[in-house]
TrEMBL record:
Keywords linked to the UniProt accession: Signal
Keyword Signal listed: yes
Source organism (scientific name): Musa acuminata subsp. malaccensis
InterPro entries tied to this protein: Bifun_inhib/LTP/seed_sf (IPR036312), Bifunc_inhib/LTP/seed_store (IPR016140), Plant_nsLTP (IPR000528)
A biological-process GO annotation: lipid transport
UniProt cross-references to PANTHER family, sorted A to Z: NON-SPECIFIC LIPID-TRANSFER PROTEIN 2-RELATED (PTHR33076)
Phylogenetic lineage: Eukaryota, Viridiplantae, Streptophyta, Embryophyta, Tracheophyta
Ranges for domain Bifunctional inhibitor/plant lipid transfer protein/seed storage helical: 6-100
Molecular function GO terms recorded: lipid binding
Protein name: (wild Malaysian banana) hypothetical protein
Record-linked SUPFAM superfamilies: Bifunctional inhibitor/lipid-transfer protein/seed storage 2S albumin
Signal peptide region: 1-16
Entry-linked Pfam families: LTP_2 (PF14368)
Coiled coil: none
Length: 124
């Protein structure tokens, strides 16, 4: 009986670990697509669906590894949306009311971006 309980606990922990990972790149791209008009300077402000996607993406970012995965996905996806204005992209989380190190810039080393843990330390 104890072995069964230990096995169930291990499976539950593994399941929780899996659900804590960043979303797949296709999902990340879907979350950002509503922002494209703003990012390519066709809209003055990000729309509600854009900001909802940015907030959802921030909620999915629990660890530095999640942030690295999201950053690397956005770098790969950026070529799909030519004309992204990088300063606008860098300001997107702020305009959506979210503290989030989100970047589309291909010149950024995603592994060096401060993760959510570091941001929380600065808030304390």
């Amino acid at each position: 009986m104890a072995r069964v309980l230990v096995l169930l606990a291990v499976l539950a922990a593994a399941s929780a670990w899996e659900s804590a990972k960043a979303p797949p790149c296709s999902k990340i791209t879907e979350m950002i697509v509503p922002c494209i008009p703003y990012l390519i300077d066709k809209a003055a402000h990000p729309g509600p669906k854009c900001c909802s996607g940015v907030r959802d993406l921030r909620k999915a970012t629990k660890t530095h590894d999640d942030l690295v995965a999201i950053c690397e996905c956005l770098e790969r996806a950026a070529h799909l949306f030519p004309g992204i204005d990088h300063p606008r992209a860098d300001n997107l989380p702020h305009l959506c009311g979210v503290r989030f190190n989100l970047t589309f810039s291909p010149s950024v080393d995603c592994k060096k971006i401060p993760g959510p843990e570091e941001l929380e330390k600065h808030l304390l």
